[in-house]
């Protein structure tokens, strides 16, 4: 059992930032297990606990998924480019053969759902946030990788990763030891549409 005293919750919330540069150091299984245990403490509609997890620590496999993801995203982008203008920065990154959508992080944890349902995605993302905050409290870096959702839901990849046919990869999160302290993020103040006292 790991200790919980490293950061209080609010400090972890403010300290968590997307980390996109990692050392090659591999995460211990016990550390990953600790993050998964924190993830499943998330609120869950109807107490369904619809989540399941895939952990990938094989860098060769991650690179293969990254390359396939880039091709898929560029193809999709081409297909819709007549409808909307592409994000030029994203296109440049995806076209760069050296760009790894997983930023060479030593682990990818995919929060998956075992079956589809009205609140399943919400539950999975809440679990993902728990996981990221627990990682922050441990001094680890994380980043959601939306770029990976498409490839992780291709039938052959789902089968390879044991994701049930009726389920899905919902929230891919990279985790690793950050190379540098992530700069503090800025947020606009909350927009309150109406406050009825
Ligand atoms: C659903 C989702 C998908 C994201 N996908 C990516 C991604 O594919 N690649 C990436 O570098 N960052 C990704 N991010 C990270 C966001 O860019 C980042 O959270 C945002 O810029 C705010 O920065 P912060 O997390 O440091 O506060 C994603 C975030 C979310 C919530």
From TrEMBL:
Residues 13-176 form the Nitroreductase domain. The lineage of its organism: Bacteria, Pseudomonadati, Pseudomonadota, Alphaproteobacteria, Hyphomicrobiales. It comes from Bradyrhizobium elkanii. InterPro entries: Nitroreductase, Nitroreductase-like, Nitroreductase/BluB. It comes from the Bacteria. This is Nitroreductase. Pfam families: Nitroreductase.
């Amino acid at each position: 059992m790991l200790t919980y005293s490293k950061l209080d919750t609010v400090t972890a919330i403010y300290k968590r930032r997307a980390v996109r540069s990692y050392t090659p150091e591999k995460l211990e299984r016990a550390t990953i297990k600790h993050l998964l245990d924190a993830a499943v403490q998330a609120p869950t509609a109807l107490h369904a606990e619809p989540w399941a997890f895939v952990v990938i620590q094989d860098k060769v496999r991650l690179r293969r998924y990254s390359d396939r993801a880039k091709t898929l995203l560029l193809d999709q982008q081409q297909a819709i480019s007549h409808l909307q203008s592409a994000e030029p920065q994203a296109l440049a990154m995806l076209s760069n053969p050296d760009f790894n959508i997983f930023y060479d992080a030593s682990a990818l944890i995919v929060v998956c759902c075992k079956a589809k349902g009205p609140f399943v995605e919400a539950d999975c993302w809440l679990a993902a946030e728990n996981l990221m905050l627990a990682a922050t409290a441990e001094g680890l870096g994380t980043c959601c990788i939306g770029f990976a959702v498409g490839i992780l839901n291709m039938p052959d990849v789902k089968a390879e990763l044991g994701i049930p046919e009726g389920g899905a990869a919902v929230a891919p999160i990279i985790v690793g030891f950050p190379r540098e302290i992530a700069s503090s993020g800025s947020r606009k103040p909350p927009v309150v549409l109406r406050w009825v006292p």
